[in-house]
Amino acid sequence: MFAGEFCETGNAEYNIDMSMAHFLFHGRLNYFLSREQRGGEININFQGRQSVKHLAESLGVPHPEIGRVQVNGREEALGYITEDEDIVHIHPIENGCPIEPRFLLDCHLERLNAHLRMLGFDCLYENNYDDLPMAKIAASEERILLTRDRRLLMRKMIVHGYCLRSLDPLEQVTEVIQRFELVRKIKPFHRCLRCNHTLQAVDKDAILERIEPLTKQYFDSFHICPACGQIYWKGSHYERMQNLVENIRKAHDACI
Ligand SMILES: [Zn+2]
């Protein structure tokens, strides 16, 4: 199903122009392989000049998920041109975030977008982005692409990205926090959930006419989005946010 001049085989005949390499994928990269391929050596027949990146992606493993590559015991770059009988070990990219944690989410991730904004992260999300414009935005704005579509992650211009494993938005947010090591960067009450702009504190007096009597009575501290005018206070949003942060920290602590 993936593009490329290759075929995978255990015992197929191959002609004199065909080369064979032996690929081993480690750790969480096994997620991308078929059940039979996981944990073992995969023999790939190929013709001509084929990079490790191309052959790995032909097996369904997107390049932004790949970290160290070792060929016959040597460290090599992902662009290394594979040779006949090479033994290629491919490791997952290490957790951490080499750039500002700013995200671009594909159109299926509306709830993840809301959760990440709630935690204070800069997230770009539109429900009508097509693949090519998304890839271009991710590249030009240096954003981390979050998607469950591995073909989108395989686009050449994507540098930073992550394929969400879970379908559940709360599990997805935990995945993102762990993969990019963001626990210490969580800043609740920092960003507008509607438009992603950063919030500003605002005097209660300045917004008195816009809030309900009960809110007026029980809350004194308010924030406003200078872009869209949405007002925030530590009511129900805040409780949801606190619960989310607590659950994420628990999940994080359980993993270290
Ligand atoms: Zn806003």
Overview features:
Rossmann fold, binds zinc ion, 256 residues, Ubiquitin-like (UB roll), alpha/beta, 13 strands, six-stranded mixed beta sheet
Describe this structure in words.
The chain has 256 residues and is an alpha/beta fold. It folds into two domains: 6-92, Beta-grasp domain (Ubiquitin-like (UB roll)); 95-189, Rossmann fold, CATH 3.40.50. Helices cover 28% and strands 21% of the residues. It is built from eight helices and 13 strands. The chain has helices at residues 52-58, 110-118, 131-140, 150-153, 169-179, 204-207, 213-218, 236-255, and strands at 6-8, 19-25, 41-46, 66-71, 74-76, 87-92, 102-105, 122-125, 144-147, 161-163, 200-202, 222-224, 231-233. The strands form three sheets. Strands 1-3-2-6-4-5 form a six-stranded mixed sheet, covered by helices on one side. Strand 12 and strand 13 (231-233) form a beta hairpin. Helix 2 (110-118) packs across helix 5 and helix 5 packs across helix 8. Residues 1-7 have low confidence and may be disordered. The structure holds zinc ion.
